[in-house]
Amino acid sequence: MNSSLQFISTFWSSSIGKKIVVAITGLILTLFLAGHLSGNMLIFVGEHAFNEYAYFLHHMLHGAGVWIARIVLLTALVLHVVGTVQLTKMNRAAGQSYNTDGTQRSSFSSKIMIWSGLTILAFIVYHILHYTARVGNEFNNPEKYEIMLDGHVAHNAYKMVIDGFSWLPASIFYIIAVTLLCSHLSHGVASIFQTLGLRTNKTEKLINTGAQVYSILIWVGFVSIPVSVLLHLVK
Amino acid sequence: MSINANIPEGPMADKWTNHKMNSKLINPANKRKFNIIVVGSGLAGASAAATLSELGYKVKCFCYQDSPRRAHSIAAQGGINAAKNYQNDGDSVQRLFYDTVKGGDFRSREANVRRLAEVSVNIIDQATAQGVPFAREYGGLLANRSFGGAQVSRTFYARGQTGQQLLIGAYQALEKEIQKGGVEMYTRTEMLDLVVVDGHAKGIVVRDMRTGKVSSYAADTVLLATGGYGNVFYLSTNAMGCNASAAVKAWKRGAYFANPCYTQIHPTCIPVSGEYQSKLTLMSESLRNDGRIWAPKSPDDAAAIRAGKKQASDIPEEDRDYYLERKYPAFGNLAPRDISSRAAKEACDEGRGVAKTGLGVYLDFRDAIDRLGEDAIRARYGNLFQMYEKIAGENPYKQPMMIYPAVHYTMGGLWVDYNLMSNLPGLHVLGEANFSDHGANRLGASALMQGLADGYFVIPTTVANYLATQKPGSVTTDHPEFAKVEKEVTDTIDKLMNVRGTRSVDYFHREMGLLTWDVCGMDRRKEGLEEGIAKIKELRAAFWDDVRIPGAANGINMELEKAMRVADFLEFAELLYIDALNREESCGGHFRGEYQFTSESPEVIAGKTQAGEALRDDENFCYVAAWEFTGVGEEPTLHKEELEYEDIKLAIRSYA
Amino acid sequence: MSTLNLTLKIWRQAGPEAEGKIETRKAQNIPIEASFLEMLDIVNQQIIETGGDPIHFDHDCREGICGMCSLTINGVPHSKEVGTTTCQVHMRKFNDGDTIFIEPFRANAFPVLKDLVTDRTAFDRIIASGGYIDVRTGSAPDANSVPIPKEQADWAFDAATCIGCGACVASCKNSSAMLFVSAKAAHLNSLPQGQPEKDKRVLSMVRQMDAEGFGNCTNQYECEAACPKLISADNIAKLNRDFAIASVKEAVAMV
Questions:
Q1: Cα distances (Å, whole numbers) of residue B383 to B157, B388, B547, C65, C186
Q2: Spatial distance between the Cα atoms of C156 and C20, rounded to a whole number of angstroms
């Protein structure tokens, strides 16, 4: 036990070890995004399908599923954030800048990773307060948001989403955050492959294109929901 | 002081084996009591330091660069010879030995060369095991090429970066020993003098180039692996920092300097473009495998090219003179370096040079591109073509390259015996810094071989012959001689700093270079050399009278560093001219205009050689000229080591 | 012969502890055939003649192989020219009237010694930590006893061409030495001779790299763009992979 703790501590304190943790947690979060988005797309199928999906999430494995997912995701998020913040601090300490900018290759997205990341973090907090903890709104009010679904009591997540995004500031913050997320992913997804040692010059193009396509899909998918709500395409 | 070469007894082929058997051994427990100083971290220095440390000696290694990996061995492009006979083309240790002696124009010490050929095979094994990425064939085995005037393919190579890869191998071995604690490395530390105690070399005085601090180190023996003196010509293919200071200081402390007049001019360098030029860039000789060297037949065409009125492609085939192919049909464009260089000079002297300065001939790949296609040429020489384009600003796939000879390597160096020890006991000299293996001319791909042979395989055995006679640690820096030499060094630095003249160090270096190239370049003559000796004395006086070194002696001061090197070169140049004047014959890298075959010579009439070829005088000059210092500006004393050829018959070095 | 008149903005710093600053200097009548360092030589001659302290910069072979030259040109190590060292940059690449910023390689692990001269001995210490194959002189088997497929040998060679100049560190936004370390690791790890020490090598070199205070790779590939020997960032991916495997093996061995 002692030695495995020692291993974890050595691995975490080495530069590559920490990056591997960031990459793996990034991968978990990235895959979560894909799942989250495909579930959310049910909103375009209809109220029933969406609420059924929400009900399923909260009741799979007798309600333990959602908590397992939350714990995994929260751990991943904490490690991802702590790791990147620490790495960024170390990097700031290691370097000095020039009097002229000699950037040749770095993308804009890659340069703002810490800022896009921290904004996304702030958004995640807000997003959880908004739709999960439902603080400062009436989404937990059973009178307004409790429905009967296939014979059992369920939360009307569909209505909650529509109500939530009908408030313009929430939608705007959401769109900004998703846009930064897209930027974050465009560099981050490709980086996962590099940091895990899966990128070669043969796969480089594929990985870069894949990362771009993925981040655009994520953007289009997530942004489509508040936009559709605001445009009353989903009611 | 003796000039006994200590050549072992027995038949030539057994000498090294016998010598190893008869060499003294030091038991492992005692080895760690011996301190060894290695100056220089090129192929010879790094390999020696690493190997001696592996054996258990305590080593201190010094280099002037910021890392041992930067030593100028790194710039060798072409390859390294070894008598592996992997090609089954008739090579053998004996043939490599013979070729090297012949290539050296019969002015090298047979026993040393034989040993060199013998250990050449071990070098390839060693380097490969270290991970040196030599070129390979599709079957996974090592590839070879023919190189620099050899008729067998015995050259191992790593693209155009053989020196770099071998040096990195040696450097990594050195770093490994540094990590293990056997070697202490001193970078950015320049040796400024040798400390001799009771007639034995026992230490050095150095300057820390970061702080300017002058300090001393003592050891049981001192190994100099400090490279050659090519920068006496100012323009050469040597690195800017390459210098002869360690060797000159050793010479001034009693070590003999042997055969300084043997300087190698490399035929394929990029021509000079202007007076600001700081160095010359070598294009690998391997280019001569596919490139054809020519100059226009008529000086008029050449003049038109120089004026920009014509291009190479405007000269029809019949008006081109492929002079190497014409004069040396058997070797053609692969004729040895000295012969190719002189032929280029002749063409330019006849007004047929094509570069703007008039000093350049063509190296043309047109036919090779037609025959093999541009892709094949790119695969073989891509990096060299790229380098040429970067420097010359012309596309060599479209226009032939322009080349001109430049000083590249110096065969002369401190005199050493078979043990690589100087006449000054305790002083060992390795690699290009010694004189021993290449005679009057070095064959291509032999420099790397010699540096590594000396460092990996020779000195680790032979150093024990000296150390076994010494009590370890018998001399420390507490000995008053160290303080004395240290004071002399700081006095010299103060003197230089206080000249406060008007002209820069580079000015004097350039002047010395021009003079040396002029009187002691590719065609040396008595009058020129005598004039040179007079002029160099004047230049030396002017230097000490009028050099300007800005800044202070403490801290980094690159002008001071250069000044100290140039001061030593200015003393050395005189010795170089004196040796060239003394050697009244032509051989290899030493060509005296007065001594050449003419069309009337019987050998020329018999077809054994051509007019204009070097005329050796075996009767009077078959010796190593080892010069003893007698005072700055004084005539040095000549000691002769007669060269006796037991195995190889002296012959005209014919490449016809 | 055409010439250029330039404005140089050069970093001057008297010593390691001294405060540095950008100094503006005219460089006049610079022949276009001169190399960048020869341009600095010309400027230095003028400085010396007028009694100033010449600009100090590292240089040695001046043919692009020793790795000693180390300055940045307009914020880019060895200039924007692809696959070129500073000593191989020629003035024909500049235009009359240009302003050129010349600064040292900047990274805390490469402290400035004077002007444009930096201390890069951290690289030597990284090599010493494991960047070698431990083979005692004289103990090597015949060189042809281990055939190596040409493709594999070529790959190792591409990594081995590193000249240790430090441009990768200087160009990196984080002053990371990953390209340097990974190139050496890839060179040795991809050869059969390098297998026995592979894991130990990777772990020690990465640990030494961290101890030297280099930053981390954030996969922006500035290093690849700046590398005068065009060493690929694929090597970094390989190092990451090798490090992960070596770490796991080390952990298993510990338990």
A1: 14, 9, 40, 12, 22
A2: 40
Instruction: For chain B, give percent helix, strand, coil, nearest 5.
Output: 40, 15, 40
pLDDT of residue B78: 82
Mean pLDDT computed over C82-101: 96
Query: Is residue B355 a contact partner of residue B392, using CB atoms and an 8 Å limit?
Result: no
Other CB atoms within a 10 A radius of the CB of residue B37 amount to 28
Q: So what's the architecture of B266-405 in CATH?
A: Alpha-Beta Complex (3.90)
Contact B435, B226 (CB under 8 A): no
Largest CA distance in chain B: 74
Q: Tell me how far apart the alpha carbons of residues B632 and A218 are, in angstroms, rounded to a whole number.
A: 82
CATH class name, domain B480-642: mainly alpha
Say whether A16 and C237 touch across the interface (CB within 8 A). Answer: no
Quote the ipTM score.
Answer: 0.97
Q: What is the distance between the alpha carbons of residues A80 and A102, in angstroms, rounded to a whole number?
A: 29
Distance, in Å, from the CA atom of B43 to the CA atom of B454, rounded to the nearest integer, reads: 9
pLDDT in the model for residue B329: 85
Return the H-helix or E-strand segment holding B403: strand B401-410
Averaged pLDDT for residues B610-627: 93
| B165 interaction partners in chain C (CB closer than 8 Å) | 157, 160
What CATH code is carried by the domain that includes residue C196?
Answer: 1.10.1060.10
**Separation CA C218–CA B21 (nearest Å):** 58
Q: Over 90: is that where the pLDDT of B444 sits?
A: no
Q: Which of residues 61-120 of A touch C (CB under 8 A)?
A: 87, 90-91, 93-107, 110-111, 113
Same-domain pairing of C190 and C81: no
- Angle (nearest 5°) at CA B38 between B35 and B44: 135
> CA nearest C17 in B: which residue?
B555
Count CB atoms within 10 A of the CB of residue A102.
Answer: 22
Partner residue opposite A197 with nearest CB, options C72, C76, C240: C240
Q: What is the CA radius of gyration of chain B?
A: 24
Residue-wise pLDDT for B77-126, tens only, equals 889 999 999 999 999 999 999 999 998 999 999 999 999 999 999 999 99
Q: Which domain holds residue A203?
A: 17-87+107-230
Integer CA distances (angstroms), B265 to B177, B292, B442, C174, in order: 36, 19, 10, 46
Whether residue A113 and residue C103 make contact (CB cut-off 8 A), yes or no, is no
CATH fold of B28-265+409-416+431-459, please? Answer: FAD/NAD(P)-binding domain (3.50.50)
Domain count of chain C?
A: 2
Closest CA to B406 of B278, B290, B296, B227: B278
- Are B71 and B615 a contacting pair, CB within 8 Å? no
Q: Kindly state whether residue A3 falls inside one of the protein's structural domains.
A: no
Q: What is the CATH number of the domain that holds A77?
A: 1.20.1300.10
Q: Which of C31, C49, C60 sits opposite B276 (nearest CB)?
A: C31
CA proximity to A158, closest of A58, A61, A225:
A225
C247 CA to chain B: closest CA distance, Å? 22
- Tally of structural domains, chain A: 1
Residue A163 confidence (pLDDT) above 70 = yes
Q: Which domain holds residue C69?
A: 3-114
**Residue C29: which H helix or E strand, with range?**
strand C21-31
Secondary structure (3-state) at B364: strand
Q: What is the spatial distance between Cα C243 and Cα C186, in angstroms, rounded to a whole number?
A: 11
